């Protein structure tokens, strides 16, 4: 009896062992499949790792907002209507660059949408600047004054599209009064004043210093700005040697905030905003 029982016990135990092994094997297969699937998902998500990382670092990408990324709360600049830009972005090498509010390109070819808005802060009683960039502007002016350049002030900063309309029409009328034809008046105006919607003053990131006069290039302030403005994130937006690319005559008084990181790179590489954003090969 005992012997027989022993055999049966052994049989039972063997069966249990086989069952246990089968269960373990099945579990291993399930785990292996799960790992393979997980890996595939991660790989698909990570196809553009650099792009996503850069976008996150900049914290203000149109893409991120369109994807519902709630971490980018700063991005309240009315950049929602950028579907076309986003399409271009997917084929560009400068993905993160084109999506950065700091270096948003506004010119004749890239007008702002009619409903563009930006959060502004008062620089003084009549002038406003982008809330995110007004600190560096204030600091730059203060530091210039501290270093003995007292003759410096912001003449023109943020301009609404309505205001630009008035400015543009006033200029045309001025030339008409001088006896120019409508065509000539418009051409002359276009050399200095952007059509409403195409001025980067609408962004609240551009500042005209002092008398908006070419004589500004002979001032100590101009010399100081050329040397130091990039540290505060500002660039000379329309340099003399880049007129063909910007399409705007040299404006020593007009400085644009792009953030210190971009400003330093542009200064080092001698690039205007168009070259920097679009890539020199495209300009
Ligand atoms: Zn200006």
Topology:
Layout: H1 2-45, H2 49-58, H3 62-66, H4 83-89, H5 95-98, E1 120-122, E2 128-130, H6 134-146, E3 154-156, H7 161-177, H8 182-192, E4 206-209, H9 220-232, E5 234-236, H10 243-246, E6 254-257, H11 260-269, H12 273-278
Antiparallel strand pairs: 1-2, 3-4, 4-6, 5-6
Helix pairs in contact: 6-9, 7-8, 9-11
The structure holds zinc ion.
Q: Tell me the name of the CATH class of the domain at 110-159 and 199-278.
A: Alpha Beta
**Bound ligands:** zinc ion
Proportion in helices: 40-55%
The structure class reads alpha+beta
Beta-strand residue fraction? 5-15%
The sequence of SSEs as H and E is HHHHHEEHEHHEHEHEHH
Low-confidence stretches: 40-93
Cross-sheet strand order for the largest sheet: 3-4-6-5
CATH architecture label of the domain at 110-159 and 199-278: 2-Layer Sandwich
Query: What is the terminal separation in angstroms?
Result: 98 Å
- Bulk shape: elongated
Helix count from the secondary structure assignment: 12
**What gyration radius follows from the Cα positions, in whole Å?**
30 Å
Largest sheet: 4 strands, antiparallel
How many beta strands in the DSSP annotation?
6
CATH topology of the domain at 110-159 and 199-278: Muramoyl-pentapeptide Carboxypeptidase, domain 2
pLDDT averaged residue by residue: 77
Your description of this structure?
The chain has 283 residues and is of the alpha+beta class. The chain has a domain at 110-159 and 199-278: Muramoyl-pentapeptide Carboxypeptidase, domain 2 (2-Layer Sandwich). 51% of the residues lie in helices and 7% in strands. The protein has helices at residues 2-45, 49-58, 62-66, 83-89, 95-98, 134-146, 161-177, 182-192, 220-232, 243-246, 260-269, 273-278, and strands at residues 120-122, 128-130, 154-156, 206-209, 234-236, 254-257. The chain is elongated and about 120 Å long. Bound molecules: zinc ion.
